[in-house]
Design goal:
Oligomer: homodimer
Low-confidence stretches of chain A: none
Mean pLDDT of chain A: 96
Strand order of the largest sheet of chain A: 3-2-4-5-6
Number of strands of chain A: 6
Strand content of chain A: 15-25%
Distance between the termini of chain A: 29 Å
Helix content of chain A: 25-40%
Number of helices of chain A: 8
Radius of gyration of chain A: 15 Å
Order of helices and strands of chain A: EHHEEHHEHEHHEH
Largest sheet of chain A: 5 strands, mixed
Structural class of chain A: alpha/beta
């Protein structure tokens, strides 16, 4: 009998350790929240990645941490979890439909899957902490192949990209994970 | 209150209209099943895309159809649904871990998101019906940007790619969808 359902969950500590009602007004506070999610996820035994979706007022629409191992699911990267739960929360397959100004903040540059998902999720701005090079230098995670002009492809479709936000903090979380001997997968 | 869960489902007709216990031995029968799923999904009011995951014996591990509109979720492409449900079914984040010989068959070339997901899902072979050019010629769906050598990037990581399998039938389903005035999203 085939399984006709996928159910993915985020840890309950998100409601306990994150201020889900605050207004994250600027780029740095948004990426700092993604980094904080990554840090908590490491403490929880998970991968060193966090992401969050915000509306035009800086209010949280969704959060994500890497859940590949606990959910036994290769799709459960931080950015995917943020898109999935933000879409479940809003009921919108394109998050910015009739609600312009949606932002994804991620602690590290999206891998090839999360990059591709970004074209369809309905965001206007992508904020990135650590670079793909940082990820590959500090951990052994593979980011996968991207188009040569990955940033230009997003911008052509109206998605603004800002990189290296709170990058030192983002790198520190990756380094902390590697020092603990965190597995890569 | 943020939503901490994503739940995605496939239609119940999959169990009624698809032989989920048959052995799909060769490339053509695998892609034909993906095309059949796409055809049924159109009849059900959905998008013209189907996909399926098979083990080394040609037994189904998971199926997928495009569920973006009913699930209000941009991630719910056919290939993603097939990966998600096959991983839920097997309990393996990498489908071919200790079980080599896993195949994804898709009615049409994966978009940039599903392409990226293919690197992490744990498949050994990717079978494709219609090409991305077919999709863009016959419908108005956007496949998104891929690396210049998208096929070589998969092969470098040990994923064999075979294209244009049952392509005429795969193109016919896309043309049928377009003739019905199907929306693109």
């Amino acid at each position: 009998m085939l399984t006709l359902e996928s159910r993915l969950t985020l840890p309950a500590w998100i409601h306990e350790r994150i201020d889900t009602r605050a207004r994250y007004a600027d780029d740095t506070s948004k990426v700092q929240l993604a980094i904080t999610l990554a840090q908590h996820n490491i403490e929880d035994g998970g991968g060193p990645f966090g992401a969050a979706v915000f509306d035009s007022e800086g209010q949280l629409l969704g959060a994500g941490v890497n859940r590949v191992v606990p959910e036994q699911c290769s799709v459960a990267h931080a950015e995917m979890m943020a898109y999935l739960t933000a879409q479940a929360h809003t009921g919108r397959a394109r998050l910015n439909q009739d609600h312009p100004g949606v932002t994804l903040a991620t602690s590290a540059q999206p891998c090839c899957m999360c990059y591709g998902a970004t074209f369809w999720a309905g965001i206007d701005t992508l904020l990135i902490g650590a670079s793909a090079a940082d990820v590959m230098q500090l951990t052994e995670f593979d980011e996968g192949p991207l188009p040569a002009d990955w940033r230009g492809e997003l911008e052509k479709r109206g998605i603004a990209v800002r990189e290296a936000i709170a990058r030192d903090d983002a790198r520190a979380v990756l380094a902390h994970y590697a020092q603990r001997g965190g597995i890569h997968y």
